[in-house]
Design goal:
CATH superfamily of the largest domain: Aldehyde Dehydrogenase, Chain A, domain 1
Strand content: 15-25%
Strand order of the largest sheet: 15-16-17-14-13-19-20
Number of domains: 2
Low-confidence stretches: none
CATH architecture of the largest domain: 3-Layer(aba) Sandwich
Mean pLDDT: 97
Number of helices: 16
Helix content: 25-40%
């Protein structure tokens, strides 16, 4: 596959002003997949200027809400119409199994555009019962302006869609900046927006690395940054945004606890936790990564989940039986390897996995599903985000300590509880500090449900009506009727 992609700035696809390019690689083979324009500060300036012009272009600014809705619905139709091609591209560029690309990434991308197409005609203001005599007051919900949408490499298309759709539904213009490791489906999404009739300048797309990202977050004509990625980068974005006090939404790291109560269905918990931990090879911010298991059930749980993990087929995302694909890069393989070594050094027991497979997979960025037992709360593998297929099993005797142990982390994105008892479920759901708590299920997402975290897991909420709040400003209008 020989792909060459440029930048979308206004109505034109152009190379980087400097002529710079970078290569994106197939993580299943380590081989080059395509060459992509590497945007610099000058290109970001041009893209932001195009977005600023698009914001006042009557073709967009005066477009009736129903027509804007039809454009978003049209994007969803095009995503579905190109589903096979897009899913294959996502798998080649990111590594996720083709079934995940089709049933999770593509399906969610189309669903979120349809969901926010419905919101276009429902963004409403209110009248306020002010106490000033002879005066009427009402509010308007207006677009924030130019939005920088910076997306990660783990679910490139899906996360770009869940940022882009609400931003457009609210009438904003955007500059998309995908992660340099996985740019291809985001570029394809920008192309589909133009095909769906979204006016020139409304959706711009710059590919590149930290230079482009930093230029966007610091840009004085960017009004809003929506970022999904690491907590470390998120903190730098907060500092960069101070220049013009731009609005910021951050969806950052996680270290999700999964609590397996004494009365839990262990077989269901094993199946659900394995899927919740190893989706996309564990490269999920809400992945279940630390398992608190009742001490009377911990041996059974450990044996069953380690056996099941070791039997999962590891292979290329395009393989028909693959359950666990490659990690996204050699850098990520090295990161996971360091944490596995650290787990052993700190005294955890390596039950299964722990290394790279050989043979036909030796050239790809693969890592075996890895299960540790005997983990304690102070170990690095129990505290730090690994972003790979590493499962840490901790035991507990006193259920009253569970919430405190689960909350003993800087993160608060997601958590899970496995129990047959409703009282246990509701009490733990209320006590755990996390943006989403799942009971007896996988960490599912839906366009109608808010998504975001506490603490170092970020600021604000994406999806649902909450995204409408994040992408609009409220204006008060006072009318003297006297």
């Amino acid at each position: 596959m020989d792909v060459r992609e440029q930048l979308l700035i206004g109505e034109r696809w152009v190379p980087a002003a400097s002529g710079a390019e970078f290569t994106t690689y197939n993580p299943a083979t380590g081989e080059p997949l395509g060459v992509v324009a590497d945007a610099g500060a000058e290109d970001v300036d041009d893209a932001v200027a195009a977005a600023r012009q698009g914001l006042i272009d009557p073709a967009w600014a005066q477009l009736p809400p129903a027509a804007r809705a039809r454009s978003l619905w049209g994007v969803a139709d095009l995503i579905e119409g190109n589903a096979d091609e897009l899913a294959r591209l996502e798998t080649l560029d990111q590594g996720q199994p083709l079934g995940v690309a089709k049933t999770v990434s593509l399906a969610m991308a189309a669903d979120v555009f349809r969901y926010y197409a419905g919101w276009c005609t429902k963004i409403e203001g209110t009248t306020s019962a002010v106490s000033v005599p002879g005066t009427m007051h009402y509010t308007r919900r207006e677009p924030i302006g130019v939005c920088a949408l910076i997306t990660p490499w783990n679910f490139p298309l899906m996360i770009a869609a869940w940022k882009l759709a609400p931003a457009l539904a609210c009438g904003n213009t955007v500059v998309l900046k995908p992660a340099e490791q996985t740019p291809l489906t985001t570029v394809a999404l920008a192309r589909l927006c133009r095909e769906a009739g979204v006016p020139a300048g409304v959706v711009n797309c710059v590919t590149g690395g930290p230079v482009a990202g930093r230029a966007l977050t610091e840009h004085p004509d960017v009004d809003k940054v929506s970022f999904t990625g690491s907590t470390e980068v998120g903190k730098r974005i907060v500092v960069a945004a101070a220049g013009n006090l731009k609005r910021v939404t951050l969806e950052l790291g996680g270290k999700a606890p999964s609590i397996i109560a004494r009365d839990a269905d262990i077989d269901a918990a094993v199946t659900g936790n394995l899927q919740g931990a190893l989706l996309n090879s564990g490269q999920v911010c809400a992945a279940y990564t630390r398992f608190y298991v009742d001490s009377r059930r911990v041996e059974e749980f450990t044996e069953k989940i380690a056996t099941a993990a070791s039997e999962l087929p590891v292979g290329p995302g395009l393989g028909p039986n693959t359950a666990v694909g490659p990690l996204v890069s050699q850098e990520q393989v090295d990161r996971v390897s360091r944490y596995v070594d650290l787990g052993v050094e700190q005294g955890a027991h390596l039950v299964s996995g722990g290394g790279r497979p050989g043979g036909d997979l030796a050239d790809g960025y693969f890592f075996q599903p890895t299960v540790f037992s005997g983990v304690t709360d102070d170990m690095a593998i129990a505290r730090e985000e690994i972003f790979g297929p590493v499962l840490s099993i901790l035991s507990y005797d006193d259920a009253d300590e569970l919430a405190a142990r689960a909350n003993d982390t800087e993160y608060g994105l997601a958590a899970c509880v496995w129990t047959k008892d409703l009282t246990t479920a509701h009490n733990l759901a209320a006590s755990i500090r996390a943006g989403s708590v799942f009971v007896n299920m996988l960490p599912f997402l839906d366009p109608a449900a808010p998504w975001g975290g506490f603490g170092s897991s970020g600021w604000g909420r994406e999806m649902g009506e909450h995204a409408i709040d994040e992408f609009t400003e409220t204006k008060g209008v006072w009318i003297n009727l006297a």
